[in-house]
Amino acid sequence: MIRRLLLIDFENISTFDLASLEADVDVVVFVGAEQKVPLALHDSAAKLGDRVIWVKMGGTGPNALDFHIACHLGRVLEISKKYACYVLSRDKGFDPLLKFLNRLGLACTRIENLAPLGIDLSPEDEASYRKAVDMLRKQLKPKRPKTRIGLIRMIASSYPKRPNALQVTAILARMQRQKLFSLREDDTVSYG
After folding, report:
1. Where are the domain boundaries for CATH 1.10.10 in the chain?
2. Region 3-118: CATH code
3. CATH of segment(s) 123-190
4. Strand ranges (DSSP E) for the chain?
5. Would you give the distance in Å from CA 187 to the centre of its chain?
6. Are 6 and 84 within 8 A, CB to CB?
7. What three-state secondary structure class fits 191?
8. What is the pTM of this model?
9. What are the Cα distances from residue 44, in Å, to 22, 87, 111, 172?
């Protein structure tokens, strides 16, 4: 299943509410070695159960927390490209790394608040979603994409201009939530 991964730079942004996140969002909060987490934030995060992981830095240094986030993104790239990753930070220094990871196939973006995680699809994405669903439904089952990459290409073709990786991943995740297909471990697709 396509999931969203939120990586939080707690040194950079320490005020947010995790309680409103949807069930397909996993969270890793990176906390500086000398930072204290407010009890109210910890309690609201506890409601998400094992979907939230806290990573406390073992030491201090310039950009120590940023390097941990970058390392974690690299691990996600190696383990599974089935995540859409969001880095919650005002630090624009992440942008070149995220652009590079997008070229390697991991959908990543930096956000400065949680609004993008609560908005399912933009109007442009909504139109492309409907077009992609129509394209899929009109194709005979033997002609439908057989792999996740094939499905991604079909979704990308539903846009008038080339979409970014997060737009395509959002549509792919929504199609999966709508049970239009299921994704197997070997990245092949089956249709109900």
Report:
1. 123-190
2. 3.40.50.1010
3. 1.10.10
4. 3-9, 25-31, 52-56, 83-88, 107-111, 182-183, 189-190
5. 17
6. no
7. coil
8. 0.69
9. 14, 20, 20, 29
